[in-house]
């Protein structure tokens, strides 16, 4: 299965689906233990930054966010969003910055200190289509709901169960 | 084109009158113990100095004389050159500035040069915008820019003499390695193994910058510059034609990596250059199989012995056929003369990325010794010396475990048990001295698609400190070792909190030197490994420690400036495999110890 080169569909379709999921799940409180069902977005409505974690597994969009991050950002921002010797932690960035700010930086780049270049990804369709996913992945990391390493994707039935409120 | 070589040579007060070849000039310079004229100290890659003013008895008095900020953040690899003209020549990571510093005036800038490069090259470096340093010959300095431009500068004035285009960063190619000048050629290799480039080693004319030959790391024999009838593998002719194509699934060789981004060494008597090639394209081994079975993916992770005049390959040895762990084979080939089983041999020793220490015959290309210098190494149990192949352990085979399966606790990590940090060799002790990495990994391959100029990795990995045994430092991620290349044994070992990512130095003063990622430069007794002296530089050291003598005074120079892959992988600390989700890692995070910043520090004895 090629997971990383169909971003356009994923960006739209998955988020669409998730939107419905999140609307349905509104009101479920985030729980401290990372292996429980989670709906941990600061905003009650679906949008960038939303994610689902069930038993350490994530929704497709958040997973794509991890892959996109690993492919396009990790070489500078370090493993699992943690930051490196020259680029800041994106987990913290996602906590502090609105999605608007975050995606603006990714599209236009940043160079506050000379030589510490955050490149512009304005020409990179793959990244542009995955910014929301990357943001969701970082939010999940920041909330402590998702650990380090490559997560697994929630199987279809489980997600369906969740939608039906049967999980847990 | 040749501008002021006479002037430089006069200033250098050199005995060498025969400047027929840049080779001769470089050879004369490196044979003078006062100079450090090539990054690895000599053609053989020994990083050994006969200077002994600074020695076991007085090293505790060693002082920093002056420091110089390069003004560049990010990882500073390589080190200063000294060719006897009273100046130090240093370089920086991207934007690849070059400085000539006055050694007699505490580092006053005599001239500086900054290339004009497209900053879009920055994101196509895999692991920081590093550069491993300048080369020098016949009054010229040679530099490989990140954007694939090879340049020659007039060492006297800093004026640009010529430039040559060696590759294309929009295809994912960069340059990070240090050139080597042999005869009238400057020899360079490309980087970009994580972007599916096609590796090549290229020779340019030192006077004109014209390309003289290029040998690819895969493809047809014509392009690899080998002849299956005469080029040997472990002493026998290769036999079969075009293995650089047939050992790959259809067309995969075209993005087959094998970038020679490490060091090149040279044997002037045999007139052969030696270097190794990097990982074979995508890190997902599945995509490099033929009919679902492992394929050798030649000539990735291969030691090449080439004729520097024509590029023709004398012999090859593939250290890791069908890579499943990103074990680039680029580590330096130390050319050392050894006694092996009662016979004198022209040896070639490698402290390899794989965790194995190899000894080969550099004339015949036979494999003599392959033993683990990092005992945690588990991806292979051993090497078969007859076939030259590793006995791969099924449990740690990321191919056998499968795509989308997380193969756990493989040692060493993709960073290797040793990465680019060059080792030192003392002819007096017969031992190699090297900073090594004690890190293991979980590795999960996934299918990936090639897009020119984009990462072509296809595996995710997490890293953790290697298991320790009794007596080892708890949670240590690196060591500095003395290795007996003939016996295949570690003689002594010093544990360090972080991977030791700096180049080592051995001297006739009975000392070995290395730097740590926290920023310490350390001197140890070459025989016992006992620490005798340390100094904390302002940033982590991934550069190499070089020594030279000017007007009777021995100096030691080192670039600090944390970064490289170590700065990316270790900044936030490693995962503790024992701890659960969200737990704070018990292992040290590099960012708690050091910050960025390129600094040259020059040491000497106060009353020398």
UniProtKB/TrEMBL annotation, chain A:
The keyword Transmembrane does not apply. Keywords: Heme, Iron, Metal-binding. Transmembrane segments: none annotated. It holds the Pfam family Cytochrome_CBB3. Residues 60-142 form the Cytochrome c domain. The keyword Metal-binding applies. InterPro entries: Cyt_c-like_dom, Cyt_c-like_dom_sf. GO terms for molecular function: electron transfer activity; heme binding; metal ion binding. This is Cytochrome c, mono-and diheme variants. It comes from Halomonas korlensis.
UniProtKB/TrEMBL annotation, chain B:
Belongs to the bacterial PQQ dehydrogenase family. InterPro entries: PQQ_b-propeller_rpt (IPR018391), PQQ_MeOH/EtOH_DH (IPR017512), PQQ_rpt_dom (IPR002372), Quinoprotein_ADH-like_sf (IPR011047), Quinoprotein_DH_CS (IPR001479). Residues 36-377, 502-556 form the Pyrrolo-quinoline quinone repeat domain. Pyrroloquinoline quinone binds at residues 77, 132, 176. Ca(2+) binds at residues 194, 279, 326. It comes from the Bacteria. Binds 1 Ca(2+) ion per subunit. Binds 1 PQQ group per subunit. Residues 1-22 form the signal peptide. It comes from Halomonas korlensis. SMART domains: PQQ (SM00564). Keywords: Calcium, Disulfide bond, Metal-binding, Oxidoreductase, PQQ, Signal. This is PQQ-dependent dehydrogenase, methanol/ethanol family. GO terms for cellular component: membrane; outer membrane-bounded periplasmic space. Its cofactor is Ca(2+); pyrroloquinoline quinone. The active site is at residue 326.
